[in-house]
């Protein structure tokens, strides 16, 4: 009985933290209304945000009042996982309400759009040509906060030294400073600074101010939501594309690596294994795909290189911006894009995918094993990789964890592709679209649309959520909730 009482107390803490995050979501829902004085003709859409905001703040306050002794309590990784999963689930529902209340989207479409926003995917069922500035900004705000991490943003001021479980449950391992609260604030400072710099650069390059804000957020968060149907291609500007490429690369780099770079430790930055692997992938993929595939589609060498760099950086960084369509791309180019989308961005960054760090470790493990067969049996080796914090000696357990995650990721990918195939889509298109969903990329070959079957949108929605929250966290959190609920009801 003592254990049951302690378990209930822990869940009061969990519910309290979720409530705190929901209060933050309620305040966030009011942020798009800041542009109403500029776009006064959209005044009638205020209530679409005010009603959900009031509702979620009230619910959050009630849940927050359940929390006791929060300052002394230390969150475990399992409890952090439960908080993150519950908070994301509720946040998505309340974030979808403005779309539903305005009559723009039905329930399935609204949930899809909200999940795409918070997971920084960028797949969309919204017609941007008919959507108001308030709603376009709301999509970007979701991507801004989702890129930094919902838990990191909402609890950055109160997470304290006891919130490591919550921090790690968000998929974060990039503890920049010894104190978690200071790390989260530093992440937000770096992130916001980049967004502001990107906005200014876009304006200088000739992009309208509203578009600049939205595209800077989308590029840094590797989100990909655009205010234009043709995405970045609508501007047909080399300067804008170059700025976008830089922002996408910045967004896909680990925040801890950014901290190393900002401290002026340039040599240490370029020694980081994940960074070297990212540049290797791009330097290998861009020339190969450009020469064998894109050269057949675009006349000049300049255009081939321009398209190749932009599209492949967009795929690897899981941003999802594009300058051209993919309808006439051959199988080799599409396959190359799929591979890069599956690999994804850096660990501890705003990007999604399997993550470059995991793929890098698996390849290094293969090399280490081959070397092990060639070396004398009595030789003792200490295998390590360079990470932002310094040398990291890789253990067999670490490799096993990464391999298990990769296996789970690919099984999920196969299931998603299978569901799209059952709905009549070609194999190539199905592989591309679900790689984009699961990797939170946002590129599309046309499957994702308002007319897409509900089962397709829900499959992609689940894929986006799993891809953003890390499979292990979601599954373990669900298993713990079920186990604890059964135990509590059994001993009532």
From TrEMBL:
GO cellular component, one term: plasma membrane
TM regions (residue ranges): 12-38, 44-62, 82-101, 144-167, 188-210, 238-262, 274-294, 332-354, 406-425, 462-482
GO biological process entries: metal ion transport
Alphabetical keyword list: Cell membrane, Ion transport, Membrane, Transmembrane, Transmembrane helix, Transport
InterPro entries associated with the record: Cat_transpt (IPR003445)
UniProt keyword Cytoplasm, yes or no: no
Localization per record: Cell membrane
Domain of life: Bacteria
Family: Belongs to the TrkH potassium transport family.
Protein's name in the database: Trk system potassium uptake protein TrkH
